[in-house]
Amino acid sequence: MAVLSGVDPGARREEAFKLLVESVLELCGYAKAKGLRFILESFDSKYDKKCLIGPAKDALALCKAVRKTYKDFGIMIDLSHLPIQDEAPKKVFATLKRANIAHIHIGNSVKQAGHPAYGDQHPRFGLPGGENDVPQLVAFLRELFAVGYLGRGRRPVVAFEVKPLPGETSGAVIASAKRTLLEAWAQV
Question: Per-residue DSSP letters for 77-120?
């Protein structure tokens, strides 16, 4: 079970963080009673969703607070969010470390205001104006290995999150994602 934190309220950020911790603890308890794992997906804090939990340092603070009670709580990291969080994979994974990473998504985003795929729309890789393509995926995968999320004998879920823009087909976007992964994987 996964959610995002909600909008960053600015001046009331400290209060919002405390309330988020309370809510996450309650949701973790509910999830555990149902045999589920509860995780939070980090999003951007200034471009699109403008969430309270975006940058890795904030995600780590949430993990530290919640993991005192629920050791299996973690953060979902999405490659598409890192550019709009103004963070590089190396920094994110060095901050969060393996223990706090619960799930991985691979996708693309657009920072350019006015672009039809602006923000967290998960357009295809290599989209003009997009932030992620093969080089960014190579760096992301390398960091997943560096922190031990991926490795010999480990087969956690790493999922694509892509969708077609108007005029594109799902099949073409999926084929493009697979090609991007194969090209990146060959360089890892």
Answer: EETTHHHHTT--HHHHHHHHTGGGEEEEEE---B-STT-TTTBT
The tokens 């200034």 sit on which residue? Answer: 46
User: Which one-letter DSSP state was computed for residue 156?
Assistant: -
d(CA 82, CA 43): 8
- Residues 6 or more apart whose CB falls under 8 angstroms from that of 93 comprise 77, 101, 143, 144, 146, 147, 149
pLDDT in tens, the chain (188 residues): 899 999 999 999 999 999 999 999 999 999 999 999 999 999 998 889 999 999 999 999 999 999 999 999 999 999 999 999 999 999 999 999 988 999 999 999 999 999 999 999 999 999 999 999 999 999 999 999 999 999 998 889 899 999 999 999 999 999 999 999 999 999 99
Amino acid at 16: A
Note the pTM of the prediction, 2 decimals: 0.93
